[in-house]
Every structure is written in C-alpha cells, then in structure tokens.
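Request: Give me one sample?
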Amino acid sequence: MNEPNTAAGLRERLIDAGVELVAKEGARGVSLREIARHAGVSHGAPRRYFPTHLSLLSAIAREGFARLAAEAGRVLAEREQDSPRAQLTALARVYLAFARDQRGMYELMFRHDLLESGELGLREVSLPLFDVLADLVARARRDGGSGSGSGNRDGGPGVADPRTVAGALWASLHGIAQLGAWRSLQLATGAEEDDVLRAALEAHLGPEDA
C-alpha cells in the first residue's frame, strides 16, 4: 500500500474513488471532476496522473479485472480437488455473479471506447483469466472425452481448439450476463440463469456425464 500523499498514493486514491463512484452511480457520467471531489483532491489533480478521462477510466476498469481475477482465483483454490468441469462451472458462476453484482464495473470493463483506446493495455488484462478458462476447457474435454461438443478428438472438421471453445464459452457467458441484465433472457426462456449456464456448458462441452 502506498502512502496516501505520495504520487503513487494519490493515484491509488483517485482509482479507489472512481471504483466507489462506479459502484454507486454506474459507469456513465463519472467525470474527472466527480472523481477528484470524491477523492478529496483539487479538480485538476487527476490530470497530473491521468492525462485523459479515458486513461483514468481504463485504470478503474483494470481494477475491475483484477478484482474479478482475484475472486475467481479464490473460488478455484477452494475447489482445486474438484473435477475440471466442476471448476469450470464454478468459474462461470463467479463471472456471472460479478456481472450481476458489480454491474457498473462490468459495463466499464467492456466499454468499447476504452478497449479501442488501448489505454493501459486494457484488452490484454483479461488474458490471464482467459488462459485459466481455456486450460479448464481443455482439461474438461479430456476428462469428458469430447471435442467441442461434437466430433471427436482425433481430428476432423467438428473438433475445435480448446482456446476457440473457451472463446465461444466466454461469448456465451457475456451474452448471458448482458441479456440477463436486460431481463430479455428470462422473458424469452422462462429459465433461471443457472439453467441457461448449464445449457451453455453442455452446448460447448457436451453432457457432463459424457
């Protein structure tokens, strides 16, 4: 932890203030001036550490990715004796819970303008957690003896690389999170989130007892 009045400490205060504001008010409308006021610094102070609004928002979003990764790591550590499929299900539930309970942060983490800006390598911050997802997909497929839900592991057009399957699963999780937040998924299916999650896992990995 940096001292609060050092340059690094003030930078952390601004990020922490932004995290709190995003949690309370959502990602939209969080300005540099509001963050400065919440952090107890002059309205010009953020510019000394973050030259643009996007750079500060990107730093806040990085904190969101870090918190999601930390929670995923904690849950997986508790389940390290479980099967890869069970760990994968637990990881997916962590992701969906984060999207549901930290809605403003989740939206900020995937804001198009932040990702396109390239500020602080925001796209790359998600890769370590994706690597965990891809590893669990590969192990779950080996244990289940399936390819990507179709085909076989000996090759052929029906077999996808584990990272491709992981990407498809991530896209499904993101869709479940977004459509769930809009209540469109419940309206269309009448199903609970966990039922939709299980269906997505079966679609990408095959039945659990396969």
